[in-house]
Amino acid sequence: MTHLHHRSACRALLVCALLACAGLLAACGFSPGTIAADSAAPHPSGSAAAPADLVAEYLPGLPAQLRFPTTDGPSPLIVMVPGGGWSSADPTGLIPLARQLTDAGSSTALITYATTGDGSTFPEAVDDVACAVRWSVQQAANQGHPPTDVVLLGHSAGGHLASLVTFSGQEFGRECPDPPVDIDGLIGLAGVYDTDQVRAYLSDWMGVSPTEEPDMWRRVNPLEWLRRSPEISDGLRVLLIHGDADQSVPLQQTTALGQELSSAGIEAETLVLPGLGHLEIFEASNAGPPIIAWMDG
Predict the structure, then answer these.
(1) CA distances from residue 51 to 20, 67, 109 in whole angstroms, order as listed
(2) What is residue 259's DSSP assignment?
(3) Which domain does 71 fall in, by range?
(4) Domain at 67, CATH number
(5) What is the pLDDT of residues 205-244, one digit of tens each?
(6) pTM of this prediction?
(7) Per the structure, how many domains does the chain have?
(8) Is beta strand 54-59 parallel, antiparallel or unpaired with respect to 62-67?
(9) Which of 80, 81, 53 is nearest to 69 (CA)?
């Protein structure tokens, strides 16, 4: 049985549970049942907010919300990957930022992925993100918004997954039903990029120790991929944002990646926002303006 088929069978029960607890967002996370809550939530401007333009599962049991600009035609696509310490992946906190980026002219895809909370281990979440990117590109094109650029955005553990998919080329997601795509940009919000520095936090997700499977632990480190195959990132643009009051992910994770990217000749911008903590960094009022300016640059 293939990896995806095995997971599909296992996640059928999860979908039922998610549907059963729709509306309990904090407890149950993101599911098809959260769309009503999304539609009713106030827009940052105070006006009534339109619901997501497309809600569907990109893999069995893994839903995504897509939003498109009001004007038809090509537009950048930003695939947004939530954090959660590899144990959860609730993207509802990113909805205001997704709306703001769509209002500014980008298509957005808000996704979730398998975590240790539902029995998943490496590399399932990485494969999920890779599949979500491919699926989102196809759906955007089908909806009349073929992507001019494909950008991955991730917060915290989501930043780790986004950077890993970006720097590893087509290494992950080999069983995805949609064809491979090139990633043009990466936006990291207080992400984890050097897993050698935070191994204790990944132990449950990895399932084995570094001494038992050293090659596996090298594969999970985005910096290892960047150092090993910098040509994979030719033409890539990167925006890294971190708050200097972050008590969860060290600022060094971002500054070190910025230095590595510069050494590799990759266009990268690093922004350190004063006074912002780990969760404040992805609020639309904080992250939105610099992301929009970077997308327009």
Answers:
(1) 21, 8, 13
(2) H
(3) 3-296
(4) 3.40.50.1820
(5) 999 999 999 999 999 999 999 998 766 767 899 999 999 9
(6) 0.86
(7) 1
(8) antiparallel
(9) 53
